[in-house]
Amino acid sequence: MNQLSVQHLLGIKHINKADIDLIFKTADHFKEVINRPIKKVPSLRDITIANLFFENSTRTKLSFELAEKRLSADVINFSASQSSVKKGETLIDTANNILSMKVDLIVMRHPHVGACDFLSKHVNARIVNAGDGTHEHPTQALLDSYSIREKLGSVTGKKIVIVGDVLHSRVALSNIYALKLQGAEVKVCGPKTLIPKYIENLGVGVEPNIRKALEWCDVANVLRVQNERMDINYFPSTREYTQLFGINKKLLDSIGKKIVIMHPGPINRGVELTSDVADAEQSIILNQVENGVAIRMAVIYLLAEQIKRN
């Protein structure tokens, strides 16, 4: 198979294992490209991509933009805070105005769950979901799995624990789908108030004790506490959260095995991870950032190839 089974990347739940394998194979090629002295390929010279970010983003936006430029696409950047959205323009009107500039592909981040799905049904362009509300963030999950595969050789059969604010995390849900699809075992660990009620229906275990979670796993994917999404207090204090669920070097050294530490960023240093853990040899946080560009290049390239074929 040399093309994706989907026309848009709206979420991991819409793709299959063969899609993931194809994205990883393509990313392997692009990873080699971005480590060359000349980091550009002319693959998408005739493709125009619009980045529509209705929510603040630094890492994801930069990563997509770099991926698009490495592929030689024409890029339009759109930020909702400086746009007609502030004047009441609808999402479809915004998108159609941008599409009238002959845009082929839209990368969108939006605060509302399902916004990318909605847009894909109403506009004639390929859509990549760069995060919709607390729902999914598919390229982050793909780069996380790709980073695990690179470090441990495979994702199949590995034990992964997702630690922290699972309730508000689109990264957690996409990761659960992606890891299960590749045959990994998954548990979540965090305050009871930050674990979704029906999480076990996704085939995921719940481990309330951080030490036991770390003793069980091969990889700990640590999430940021998303204070900006919280309208009530989900735990008494940041200090208490850190005492119960923060990972420090002493705890890590005491479990008697080397586990891989990941974090989608940005890190609240001293809250979910201490600096000596974030910067430790077993941390692959910076590898995730590098792999993010290769994965996003692969996704955009594969969707653009479909446009060219049609």
Describe the structure.
The chain has eleven helices and nine strands. The protein is an alpha/beta fold. The protein has two domains: 12-136 and 289-309, Rossmann fold (3-Layer(aba) Sandwich); 138-288, 3-Layer(aba) Sandwich (Rossmann fold), CATH 3.40.50.1370. The two termini are 17 Å apart. It has helices spanning 17-34, 59-70, 91-99, 115-122, 138-152, 170-181, 210-216, 238-245, 249-254, 275-278, 285-309, and strands at 48-53, 74-79, 105-110, 126-132, 159-163, 185-189, 205-206, 219-222, 260-262. Helix 5 (138-152) packs across helix 6 and helix 5 crosses helix 11. It is globular, with a radius of gyration of 19 Å. The strands form two sheets. Strands 7-6-5-8-9 form a five-stranded parallel beta sheet, with helices on both faces. The protein has a four-stranded parallel beta sheet with strand order 2-1-3-4, sandwiched between helices. The longest helix is centred in the last third of the chain and has 25 residues, at 285-309. Strand 1, helix 2 and strand 2 form a beta-alpha-beta unit. The model is unreliable at 228-232 (pLDDT under 50).
Tags for this model:
310 residues; alpha/beta; Rossmann fold; 2 domains; five-stranded parallel beta sheet; four-stranded parallel beta sheet; 9 strands; 40% helix; globular
